[in-house]
C-alpha cells in the first residue's frame, strides 16, 4: 500500500535520513507509476554527510526503474555543502530538498507540515532523541503518517520502547498496517494524533495553503516570469502584465549575464542565498534553453584584483582538458589568484523570460501599465492610468523592480490606513549600468580567455549573436539619483576595469575602446539597501492577496528562481527551498 495521496494537489514527505537515496527513489518511482498521483511531490530529506553520486546509482543497481531516476539525480549531485539544496526533477513536479547538516538543526530549520514522515529508527535511542522527536512533531500536522524503517539495525532502539517514545511525542499506532511497495521494504505505520491541543504558534509563519486560483503578476522580467512559471507548474492561472510591448524590456533585456555564486570566507547570507539560487537557475536553463545558443555551463573564473576581498585560491583547476589547452596560452600565466566556479554559466535572460511565459497556464499582456489597484468583492483589480481594469485576480505579485516600490509607496500615501505596514519595505535605489560589446572580427584573438572572467566587472568572451560571435565587457554602476554619466565616460570606466581584470585583453581592445564605435546596452538595476531581494506577503492576513518579488539588484540570474520558489512555497504551504532563517532575511516587510 502506498501513500494516501490520491487527487491531492501536493504531497509532502519528510525523510529523516536520506542515506543513499533508495526511499526517495522508490517514492519518486511510485509517484511516476500512479495515475492518481498528486501534481507535485515534495520530498525533504535530512543527511549529515551526502553520499556520492556513484552511491546513488550503485544503491539501486538491481532495480532498473530506480537506476534511471538515480542517474537523473546524479547529474545534479554537486556542491553539497552544509545547508539546503533543492533539486527540480520531472520538470519541476518532483522536488527534492536535501538538508545537509546535523539532523536536529536541519529539522529546526524547516517551516512546513509534512503529510508523511519516513523515520529512521537508528536516529532514536540517544540522549538527543527527545529534542529530535519534539522538532519532528513540530513538522507534523494532525494525521501525518509515520513510517518507521531500520528497526532491525543493532544500533536502533528496541521496537516496544521505540513505539512508547513515539507515543509520548504524539504518534499513535492503531493498526498493523504496513506499506509495501515493490521496490521498498514493508514498514510499520503510525499517525501523528496527539491527545493534546496543537498550538498554532508551533511554526513562525502561517502554514495554510492558499486555494489554487488566479494570480496577476506585474512585470515581465526575470522576477515576474519566474514567479509565473513557478505558480503555473503548481496549477495556478497566471496573467503577467508589462507596460512594454514585449517581455524582458527592463534590466532583464541584458544581452548576456553571468550566474556565479558569491563566495565569502564566513559563508555569509548572500553567499548561501546566491549558491542556492544559482543551482536552481542552472536547472531551469538546462530544462528550457538551447545549450551554447541561449546559455552554456562554461565555468567562470573569478579573479582577485586590487580591492577585492581575499578569496580562496583555487585556480588553475586540474583535470579539465580545455583548461590544459588554455594553460599553455600566454594569458593563463598572467591570471594570478582566483576562484574557478565550475558551475558558473552565461545565460541570455530574455530567452529564459520568454520560455517561462510560454509555460502552460501563463498568459502575457503587453502595453499594460498598472498605476493603481483596487479590492472589490474578494478580487483585486489592476487599473491603468484611465482607471480601466486591466485584469482581475485573487492574488497579485508586484514583480516590477523599482516600479513596484514606487507604486507601493504611492498607494501607501493615498491610503495609509490600509497600507501603513509598507513603511517596513526595504529602502531601494535604481543603479544604472552600461555594458560595451562587439562582434569578433575574423578569428578570435588569443588574448580572449575561453570562458567568462569576473572580479572587476566581467568579460564574456564568445557569445553567439545572430550567427556571429560577440564579446561583452560590463558593467558600469551609478545611482539613478545622480545626473546620468555619458556613454563614453561609462565606456572609459569599463575599460579601466578591463585593464585590471585581463591586462593582455585590455591591450588588444584599447584601440576599440578609444573610439565611439563599440556597441552599448544599458538599463537600471533595482538594488535594496542590504543587497538582498524582497519576497513575501505585503499584508498580515491569513490569506494575503498582495505579494512582492523584487529588488534582484545585480544578481537577477542568481536570485530570480530562488525567489519564485520561495514565493510559491509560501502560497502552497510547501517546504521552503532554503533554511527558514535565510528565508526570513528576504521578507518583503523586513525593515
Ligand atoms: C548593465 C547590467 C548588467 C547586469 N549583469 C548581470 C549579470 O551578469 N548577472 C545577473 O545575475 N544580473 C545582472 N544584472 C541584473 C539583472 O539584469 C537584474 O537583476 C534582473 O534583470 C532584474 O529582473 P526584474 O524582473 O526584477 O526587473 P526587470 O527586468 O527590470 O523587469 C521589470 C519589468 O516591470 C515592468 N514594469 C515596471 N513598472 C510597471 C508597471 N507599473 N506596470 C507594468 N509593468 C511594469 C518593466 O517594463 C519591466 O519589464 C545586470 C543588470 C544591468 C543593468
List the helices and strands and how they pair.
Blueprint: E1 10-15, H1 22-33, E2 40-47, H2 53-58, H3 64-74, E3 83-89, E4 94-100, H4 103-108, E5 114-120, H5 129-138, E6 140-149, H6 159-168, E7 171-172, E8 178-179, E9 187-192, E10 214-218, H7 222-233, E11 237-241, E12 257-259, H8 269-288, E13 295-296, E14 300-303, H9 321-327, E15 338-341, E16 345-347, H10 349-357, E17 362-365, E18 372-376, E19 379-383, E20 389-393, E21 395-398, H11 401-414, H12 416-419, E22 428-439, E23 453-454, E24 458-465, E25 468-474, E26 478-479, H13 487-501, H14 503-513, E27 519-528, E28 534-537, E29 546-550, H15 556-572, H16 580-584
Parallel strand pairs: 1-2, 1-5, 2-4, 5-6, 10-11, 10-21, 11-17, 14-23, 21-29
Antiparallel strand pairs: 3-4, 6-9, 7-9, 8-9, 12-16, 13-16, 14-15, 18-19, 19-20, 22-25, 22-26, 22-27, 23-24, 24-25, 28-29
Helix pairs in contact: 1-3, 7-10, 7-15, 8-15, 13-14
Residues 218-224, 241-244, 249-252, 254, 257-259, 349, 368-370, 399-401, 403, 407, 433, 435, 474-475, 523, 525-526, 550, 552-558 line the site of flavin-adenine dinucleotide.
How would you describe this structure in keywords?
about 600 residues, alpha/beta, Rossmann fold, FAD/NAD(P)-binding domain, D-Amino Acid Oxidase, Chain A, domain 2, nine-stranded mixed β-sheet, eight-stranded mixed β-sheet, globular, binds flavin-adenine dinucleotide
- Could you list the spans in which at least 5 consecutive residues all have pLDDT below 50? 318-325
User: What spatial form do the alpha-carbon principal axes imply?
Assistant: globular
Bound molecules: flavin-adenine dinucleotide
As for the number of domains, it is 3
**Class derived from helix and strand content:** alpha/beta
The CATH superfamily of the largest domain is known as Vaccinia Virus protein VP39
Number of helices: 16
- Topology, number of strands: 29
Amino acid at each position: 500500500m502506498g501513500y494516501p495521496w490520491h487527487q491531492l494537489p501536493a504531497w509532502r514527505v519528510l525523510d529523516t535520513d536520506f542515506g543513499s537515496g533508495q526511499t526517495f527513489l522508490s517514492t519518486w518511482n511510485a509517484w511516476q507509476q500512479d495515475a492518481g498521483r498528486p501534481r507535485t511531490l515534495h520530498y525533504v530529506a535530512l543527511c549529515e554527510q551526502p553520499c556520492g553520486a556513484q552511491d546513488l546509482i550503485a544503491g539501486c543497481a538491481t532495480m532498473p526503474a530506480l537506476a534511471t531516476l538515480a542517474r537523473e539525480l546524479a547529474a545534479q549531485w554537486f556542491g553539497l555543502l552544509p545547508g539546503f539544496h533543492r533539486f527540480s526533477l520531472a520538470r519541476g513536479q518532483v522536488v527534492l530538498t536535501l538538508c545537509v547538516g546535523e539532523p536536529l538543526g536541519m529539522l529546526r530549520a524547516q517551516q512546513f507540515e509534512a503529510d508523511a514522515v519516513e523515520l529512521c529508527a537508528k536516529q532514536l535511542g540517544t540522549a538527543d532523541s527527545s529534542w529530535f522527536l519534539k522538532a519532528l512533531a513540530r513538522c507534523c500536522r494532525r494525521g501525518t503518517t509515520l513510517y518507521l524503517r531500520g528497526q532491525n539495525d543493532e544500533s536502533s532502539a528496541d521496537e516496544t520502547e521505540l513505539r512508547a517514545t513515539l507515543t509520548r511525542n504524539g504518534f499513535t499506532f492503531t493498526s498493523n498496517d504496513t506499506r509495501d511497495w515493490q521496490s521498498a521494504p514493508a514498514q510499520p505505520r503510525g499517525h501523528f494524533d496527539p491527545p493534546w491541543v496543537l498550538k498554532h504558534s508551533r511554526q513562525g509563519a502561517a502554514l495554510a495553503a492558499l486555494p489554487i486560483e488566479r494570480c496577476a503578476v506585474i512585470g515581465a522580467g526575470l522576477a515576474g516570469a519566474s514567479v509565473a512559471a513557478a505558480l503555473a507548474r503548481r496549477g495556478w492561472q497566471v496573467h503577467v502584465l508589462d507596460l512594454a510591448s514585449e517581455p524582458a524590456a527592463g534590466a532583464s533585456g541584458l544581452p548576456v549575464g553571468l550566474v556565479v555564486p558569491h563566495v565569502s570566507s564566513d559563508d555569509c547570507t548572500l553567499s548561501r542565498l546566491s549558491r542556492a539560487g544559482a543551482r536552481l537557475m542552472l536547472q531551469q536553463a538546462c530544462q528550457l534553453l538551447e545549450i551554447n545558443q541561449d546559455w552554456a555551463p562554461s565555468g567562470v573564473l573569478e579573479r582577485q584584483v586590487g580591492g577585492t576581498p581575499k578569496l580562496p585560491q583555487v585556480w588553475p583547476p586540474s583535470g579539465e582538458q580545455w583548461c590544459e589547452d588554455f594553460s599553455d596560452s600566454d594569458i593563463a600565466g598572467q591570471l594570478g589568484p582566483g576562484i574557478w566556479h565550475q558551475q558558473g554559466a552565461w545565460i541570455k535572460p530574455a530567452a529564459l523570460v520568454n520560455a517561462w511565459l510560454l509555460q502552460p497556464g501563463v498568459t502575457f499582456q503587453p502595453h499594460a501599465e498598472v498605476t493603481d489597484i483596487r479590492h472589490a468583492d474578494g478580487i483585486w483589480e489592476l487599473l491603468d492610468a484611465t482607471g480601466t481594469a486591466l485584469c482581475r485576480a485573487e492574488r497579485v505579485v508586484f514583480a516590477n523592480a523599482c516600479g513596484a516600490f514606487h507604486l507601493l509607496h504611492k498607494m501607501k500615501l493615498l491610503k495609509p490606513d490600509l497600507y501603513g505596514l509598507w513603511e517596513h519595505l526595504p529602502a531601494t535605489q535604481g543603479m544604472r549600468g552600461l555594458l560595451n560589446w562587439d562582434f569578433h572580427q575574423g578569428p578570435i584573438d588569443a588574448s580572449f580567455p575561453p570562458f567568462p572572467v569576473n572580479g572587476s566587472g566581467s568579460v564574456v568572451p564568445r557569445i553567439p549573436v545572430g550567427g556571429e560571435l560577440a564579446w561583452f565587457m560590463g558593467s558600469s554602476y551609478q545611482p539613478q539619483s545622480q545626473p546620468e554619466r555619458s556613454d563614453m565616460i561609462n565606456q572609459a570606466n569599463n575599460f579601466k576595469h578591463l585593464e585590471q581584470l585581463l591586462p593582455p585583453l585590455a591591450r588588444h581592445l584599447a584601440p576599440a575602446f578609444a573610439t565611439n564605435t563599440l556597441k552599448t546596452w544599458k538599463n537600471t538595476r533595482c538594488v535594496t539597501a542590504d543587497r538582498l531581494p524582497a519576497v513575501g506577503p505585503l499584508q498580515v492576513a491569513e490569506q494575503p492577496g498582495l505579494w512582492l518579488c523584487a529588488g534582484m539588484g545585480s544578481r537577477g540570474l542568481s536570485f530570480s528562481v530562488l525567489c519564485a520558489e520561495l514565493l510559491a512555497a509560501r502560497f502552497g504551504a510547501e517546504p521552503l527551498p532554503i533554511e527558514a532563517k535565510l528565508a526570513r532575511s528576504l521578507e518583503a516587510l523586513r525593515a
